[in-house]
Amino acid sequence: MADKPSDLVQGTLDMLILKTLALEPMHGYGIAVRLEQMSKGVFRLNAGSLFVAFQRLQRAGLIRSEWKATENSRRAKYYVLTDQGRKRLNSETREWGRQVAAIARILEAS
Amino acid sequence: MSLLRNIVGGLRSLFRKEQVSQELDEELNGFLEMAAEEKMKRGMSRHDAVRAVRLERGNLEVAKEIVHAAGWESFVETCWQDLRHGQRVLRKSPGFAVVAVLTLALGIGATTAIFSVVNAVLLRPLAMEDPSHVVFVQETWRDIFPGVAVGNFVDLKRQSTSFAELCASNDASFNLEARELPERVDGEIATANYFTTFGVQPIAGRVFTAEEDKPGQPKVVVISERLWRTKLHSDPSIVGQPIRVNGLPTTVLGVMPRSFDPLLSSSDLWVPAAFSAEQLADHDNHYLNVMARLKQGTSQAQAQSELNVIAQWLRKQYPIDDQDRGFRLQPLATALLGDQRLGLRMMLAAVGVLLLIACANIANLQLARSRTRQKEIAMRAALGASPNRIVRQLLAENVVLGLAGGVVGVLLAYWAVAWIIAHGPAEMPRLDQSRIDASTLAFACAVALLSSFLFGLAPALRSASTHLSEVFKSSSGISGGRRDRVRSLLVVVEVSLALILMAGAGLLIRSALLVSHLDPGFDTSNVVVGRVGLPDPAYHDPALARQTFEQMITATAALPGVKSVAVVSRAPLAGGGSSNGLLAEGKPFDMANLVNSQLQIISPSYLSTARVPLKAGRDFTPQDTRDRSLVTIVNETLARTMWPGENPIGKRFACCEAGPKGRMDPVWHEVVGLVADVRAWGLDRQVQPEFYVPLAQMPASAWDWIGRTMDLVVRTRGGAVPIHELQSTVASVAPAVPIYRLSTMQQKISSTLERSHFDTFLLAIFAGTALLLSSVGIYGVLSYMVAQRTRDIGIRMALGASQAQIVWDVLGFGVRLAGIGLALGLAAAMAATRLLSSLLYGVRPTDAATFAAVSFILLAVALIASYFPARRATRVDPLVALRYE
Questions:
Q1: Was domain A13-109 assigned CATH 3.40.50.11540?
Q2: Does B40 contact A at CB distance below 8 Å?
Q3: Residues in chain B within 8 Å Cβ distance of A27
Q4: pTM for the full model?
Q5: Sequence ranges of the domains in chain A
């Protein structure tokens, strides 16, 4: 069932949200759509987990939020990456790369 | 930073709940709308689009809940809900709530009050810089710990390297002429580095210099803030001014801060010790308080071993004066407060036991309630509450109880502390500083929470583990055996704890009764005593000092209402005294042959005035003067110690002074009389060997030993104490000399017993409360048992059981509980009361009569507590009981 959206690897959602926001500030729905597009439909996110992650990242000071008008002139809460968030994204990306490479080596070895 | 943001975020959603939830609503709605629009663009109807979004993204209401529950604040919120629910539940059973809160308040209040006393007296650090480095040095000699001789202090100071500072002081009191009447104030003579040893600076002026601490310098004094405030009108220009101390103008150098009381002796002034060359070489008189500050990095053990080496050197250097002498080093706080520890710890243990009993009682009540609430809890469980949540909720209810009990308890403690300060023993240092402050409140809070868990956890766990099916199956109350066993066990524990307290209180009461019936050894009725100290330079001449006291006796005897008058160097129960080594005639001069004995210098009329019974020989007469042969009168204890089994009259001993041929030349005193023992150190203290020397024969140097201070003993014909007459009579003979510590002999006796009576009284109150609480516990368990077994009792009565049998059954159960508790309590009390032994007089800690009496009281109370439920059981109507089903 390859076409069914899969669950995210534990703990990676935060990193993906940060990555999405690294390009530009975005509202919740935009983030969800962007994640889906970039993953070519592999990750389809539940609203609950998405908004819990926003709250968590905001309290950790990695993103902040502001109310703005959308292109369709609707009011929406936009999330913005903070400097601290950018640093975290960089370090986590590096760490992720190391781990993926390591896992790949293990899997190929057998 | 992120922790702070987390807290702020949490607080925001706690306190601005509406706004936060609105924002989340709006955000989620926007999310839904945007997703739906996207789908509508692809041709879906709005209805289908919204449905599709829900399917893809989950229910938005659920999402809201998830977001809401993710933060820590939601935990706080459910706790708050639990607390509020607990409070509602308690409001619904006010009877239970009131009993529980009051019981708990009693326990917490008593514990908090005693803790605040312990905190003030024992735990608070002494008011000085880094008190943990300050030590107190005493000499050790055989098994006593005298002060340090000036000569030894000098050698100690010269040779020791462990101390940053080493100073000495001696208690002294001074005649101060500041207001209309001359007054006596307590103070100290001190070496110049006394203040730097404690690291405390004066609030005005300065302390004395080493130069001023030398003989022949102008008179200077450092005063306490209290003296400055109460006797010198807080005069802002006092520094540099002269005040009259001991009849001489003395310059005030500085004022010490209010908190400065390093030896807890309430000293009001300090004058330089200014030891003379003769004093600096004296190794024979051991009286100095020596305090020292350890160098940084030097341990107490290191300092002690250095002192041991110095002591060894001193023993070699001064083989007579320093034979058998060593040094003892203690932390200053231990030296000053060690005596208070036992009594206060006993109190703390007693209130702790009381608190445990209170907790056991509430646990018992809760268990009884948990049975009736089983269905409520089963219902919650059936509706999906996790065991975790149920325990939390039940605990929250107990925390509400605990906090309510804590609040009432602290109010009780406020009152109790005020009462203790007003009625507590005056001799207990720092007692007046007891108060409910932040640390006691924190203590009370911790006690309240701890006890609510203590009494709440067992019932809560029990309830949460209830199996649903069992509850709904058993429709009527058929007693659950297991639960009753827990409750019975709690009662047994309560009873045994109560017995321990009762045994302790019983022993103290018995001891106090025995002491109050002791014969003080003289007639204490209608005797008034006051102290008179003649200042040194003015009355330095021994003949003048003696004549002044003799004139005082004559003048006082002429007052109306006065039967007879005498002076004595230390009246009984006045404390202090000077000890002398006596050598019986015929024994070789050796330290081991010396009998340590208390010297009393008396006017010839003393023994007849105090009515100390003469057992043999004769009393002193005015003819016993220095040019006749030296005579003495001994008490029975001294006679027994010195000449066991012999008639002491006519025997001689050497003491007090050296003959013309030097130190080893004995001066003999002939025993002319034998008197009864006087309990001079307190009714409950061991009688010391004591000997009396007539005023007219005392060696000149003895005036220095007693500081030219004597007690005037006046036997009146009854009626009011002639305070003013005595004051003006003394002042008319010796101008500007006050008479102080003026009180009746009976007042002096009761003040020496103040401490033990206070301890006894408090412990008796605690024991009574414990007895009351545990009888309530017995009553509760039996009432509950009777209520649960109404049906059994009904059946038995229907089958022909007599009322008496039913009564016996219930009573028997109650007595069995009390009996088991009693046995356990007796065993524990045997061990616990041993700790009291030093507080007891004439009673062994395992006194059988006391244990029997308290056991009897306890059983009687248990019987009464069981009787009411038993009677209720007999009123069960078999018909009604059976119709219950």
A1: no
A2: no
A3: 30-31, 34
A4: 0.76
A5: 13-109
